[in-house]
């Protein structure tokens, strides 16, 4: 393994209190990003003490303030949509740069997010600031983005990937920065009790969770103008077409059919789980198509913080998920689950859990829902088989995740 590259120079902030910039998908009402951010703040304070000065840039300050409050040593800094100059200035004024978004080196969601991380890395290299990518993923990349990742990510002092495949992907595109392999830092996230979250459901039925994603919104594209309903935040717009609308409705009806089947055949209540508030549109469509609406409820990251959402996930009888962190946050309780994947993250996770391909299905598989039905029946008939796989998989993932703090401390202390 390559050694950690040291920055050519490092000058700490006044009073020897380091200034750490956390660059990620902050302030998006996204349970995964929220759980990661809160865990990472704890990790940094463990490594450097409570006096460390943290700065969290965000495109949406109000959403971020839902779960992170400004403190003496913690600042929230709004970023403009065209972020290059502002982000460059922030990098210049900090001692350490941490890339904390899990979906770091991929363009599945939007190239604009990837470019923000690469730009922060480039600026850190320019200003000779130590730069670390902390427990991140690599995935699908266009030819242009492969070139950019090779060029800019190689300037990192250290990249910690949360799985083995991501390290392979980075090396395959030519990244030369030192790479360490651990697991997701959200595996250490502490959950809230379930009290009051699902109290209206009948206690005589179990609870099945469906973490849905509208695959047909992505990728977000950069354009000067578009319809307001498709705007993520100017100038970024969701992909949209009549064909995508039809596919979205078909997806919603398919989820609704599975939900009704779980109610009628397996006597479950249904939790429609929105790990990001962007998932609400699809969840409401699913609910509208269900015949057993009284047995279903939408649970959104807009209303539940990451702690309460984790409590919900950990108390399910079965989980069908298209969200990576729904799987991660339920692992400690071995919640039987299957995944319907759109990008590489769930596929890679299930490979490491030794649940691929039996429990993982591609969203565009022509036999998808027949396979889902068969697997749901199999799991609910004999959940112990799946739970044994999950128990072994969690132990491996958790033990690897414990390495994150020591690597982070070594990096932060080594920059001095």
TrEMBL record:
Domain Polysaccharide pyruvyl transferase positions: 49-343
Pfam families membership: PS_pyruv_trans
InterPro entries in the record: Polysacch_pyruvyl_Trfase (IPR007345)
Domain of life according to the entry: Archaea
Keywords carried by this UniProt record: Transferase
GO molecular function: transferase activity
Protein name, UniProt field: Polysaccharide pyruvyl transferase family protein
Source organism of the structure: Methanobacterium alkalithermotolerans
């Amino acid at each position: 393994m390559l050694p950690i590259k040291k920055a050519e120079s490092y000058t700490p902030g006044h009073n020897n209190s380091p200034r750490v910039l956390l660059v990620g998908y902050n302030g998006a009402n996204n349970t995964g990003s929220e759980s990661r951010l809160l865990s990472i703040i704890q990790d940094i304070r463990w490594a450097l003490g409570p006096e460390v000065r943290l700065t969290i840039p965000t495109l949406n300050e109000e959403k971020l303030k839902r779960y992170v409050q400004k403190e003496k040593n913690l600042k929230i800094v709004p970023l403009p949509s065209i972020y290059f100059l502002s982000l460059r200035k922030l990098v210049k004024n900090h001692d350490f740069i941490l890339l904390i978004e899990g979906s770091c080196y991929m363009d599945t969601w939007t190239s604009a997010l990837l470019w923000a991380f690469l730009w922060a890395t480039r600026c850190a290299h320019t200003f000779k600031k130590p730069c670390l990518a902390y427990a991140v993923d690599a995935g699908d990349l266009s030819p242009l983005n492969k070139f950019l990742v090779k060029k800019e990510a190689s300037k990192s002092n250290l990249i910690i990937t949360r799985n083995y495949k991501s390290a392979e992907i980075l090396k395959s595109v030519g990244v030369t920065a030192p790479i360490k392999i651990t697991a997701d830092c959200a595996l250490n996230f502490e959950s809230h009790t379930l009290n009051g979250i699902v109290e209206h459901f009948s206690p005589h039925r179990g609870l099945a969770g469906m973490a849905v994603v509208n695959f047909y919104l992505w990728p977000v594209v950069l354009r000067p103008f578009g319809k307001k309903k498709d705007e993520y935040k100017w100038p970024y717009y969701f992909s949209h077409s009549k064909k995508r609308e039809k596919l979205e409705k078909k997806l919603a009806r398919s989820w609704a059919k599975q939900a009704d089947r779980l109610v009628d055949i397996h006597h479950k209540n249904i939790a429609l789980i929105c790990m990001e508030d962007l998932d609400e549109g699809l969840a409401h469509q699913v609910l509208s198509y269900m015949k057993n609406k009284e047995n279903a409820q939408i649970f959104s990251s807009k209303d539940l913080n990451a702690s309460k959402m984790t409590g919900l996930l950990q108390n399910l009888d079965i989980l069908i998920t298209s969200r990576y962190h729904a799987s991660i946050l339920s692992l400690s309780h071995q919640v039987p689950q299957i995944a319907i994947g759109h990008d590489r993250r769930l596929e890679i996770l299930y490979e490491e859990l030794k649940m691929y391909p039996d429990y993982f299905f591609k969203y565009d598989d022509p036999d998808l829902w027949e396979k889902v039905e068969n697997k749901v029946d199999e799991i609910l008939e004999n959940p112990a088989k799946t739970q044994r796989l999950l128990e072994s998989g969690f132990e491996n993932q958790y033990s690897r995740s414990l390495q994150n703090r020591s690597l982070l401390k070594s990096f932060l202390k080594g920059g001095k």
